[in-house]
Amino acid sequence: MSAVIPIQLDQGCSDAPVLLERGQREVFCGLTGIIWLHRKMQDAFFLVVGSRTCAHLIQSAAGVMIFAEPRFATAILDERDLAGLADAQDELDRVVQRLLERRPDIRLLFLVGSCPSEVIKLDLSRAAGRLSERFMPQVRVLNYSGSGIETTFTQGEDACLAALVPVLPVSMQQHEPELLIVGALADVVEDQFARLFTAMGIQRFAFFPSRRSTALPAIGPQTRFLLAQPFLADSARALEDRGARRVPAPFPLGAEGSAAWMQAAGAAMGLSAERVEQAIAPARQRAELALAAHRALLAGKHVFFFPDSQLEVPLARFLARELGMQLSEVGTPYLHRQHLAEELAWLPAGTALSEGQDVEKQLDRCRALRPDIVVCGLGLANPLESEGFTTKWSIELVFTPIQGFEQAGDLAGLFTRPLTRRQLLAA
Question: Given a cut of 90, is residue 181 above it in pLDDT?
Answer without folding.
Answer: yes
